[in-house]
Structure formats: structure tokens, C-alpha cells
Amino acid sequence: MTTANDPQLTHVRDDGSAHMVDVSAKPETTRVARAQAVLHSTAEVLALLGTGGLPKGDALAVARVAGIMAAKKTPELIPLCHPLPLSKATVDFELLDDAVVVTALVKTRGVTGVEMEALTAASVAALTLYDMIKAVDKHAVISEMKVLAKSGGKSGDWEL
Q1: Domains in the chain, number
Q2: Distance (Å, rounded) from C-alpha 29 to C-alpha 149?
Q3: pLDDT tens, residue by residue, 45-90
Q4: N or C: the chain end with fewer CB closer than 10 Å?
């Protein structure tokens, strides 16, 4: 049992080997997670991104769909994640002068949280944007990938 004074990694057994956590005894609750990733680029590239003027087309629309698809594929990408019936997945963008903030929100009704699905959605959407702008900005950087908020489950709700 994990406590605040004695934290343990849940995906590691006492002998150090990895395993998928047994969540069968946990109660089903509504679970929501919001995560972000930030793509840093130049003002010129961000202007092209905002107007759909990139050589590869409307990068924001493509990245939105890529992020949603990625949320649904999380257990195929992250080995010990449980497959979850997602009830909602959104990806939104905030265009700043020198960056795009990608925010993903994922929701389910289940026995385990959707933080990894939200992180996967945000990161894949940012990677897709990177792919679509690399022809005009080879120095773009993805950073600040993090969970912003979660709700549902035994550990309760929290927000950064």
C-alpha cells in the first residue's frame, strides 16, 4: 500500500519487475485529465500556422485529429496503460507570439485515470505541429509537457 510517507511505484513489484496494476477492485468513477505541451517557434511561423498558410496546409486541424487519435491509442504506445473506453477527447490550441500551447482534455467513466491519455494527446498534437512546420522552422522546440489537472478516483481532484 502506498502512503504519503512511504511512496511506492505502482508498476513495479517487490522484486523490481514491471507489471500491469490490478484495478479490478477499484470503484468506477468519472475521471477527467487535462494536459499540455508547448511548441516554441518564430512569430513568422506562428502567423503562417494561424492563417493555414504553411506548405503542408492546415496544421492545427491535422494536429487536433492526431492528438485525439493518439489518446485512443495510448495503451498501444505506453506498455502498462490500461485500455479505457474514452467518452471525450479534445485538443485545443492557444497561439502566442512565440509559441503554441496545446491543451488536451480526456474523459472516461472507469476504474483508472486518464492522465496518460491526456499527455499522449497533447504531445502527439505538438509533434504533429512540429512535423508540419519543420520545413519552415528547423529549430522549433517542444517543451512544458505536463498534466494540468485531474479529477476522479481515490487520490481526488487537483489542478496546477
Answers
A1: 1
A2: 16
A3: 999 999 988 888 899 999 999 999 999 999 999 999 999 999 999 9
A4: N
CATH number of domain containing 123: 3.30.70.640
132-160, pLDDT tens digit by residue? 999 999 999 999 999 999 999 888 899 99
Query: Counting Cβ atoms within 10 Å, is residue 159 exposed (0-12), middle (13-18) or buried (19+)?
Result: exposed
Structural domain that includes position 107: 42-151
User: Is 55 part of a structural domain of the chain?
Assistant: yes
pLDDT digits (tens, 9 = 90+) for 14-51: 787 877 888 888 889 999 999 999 999 999 999 999 99
In a domain, 14, yes or no: no
List residues with catalytic annotation.
131
- Asked, for residue 1, whether it belongs to a domain, the answer is no
What is the reported pTM? 0.89
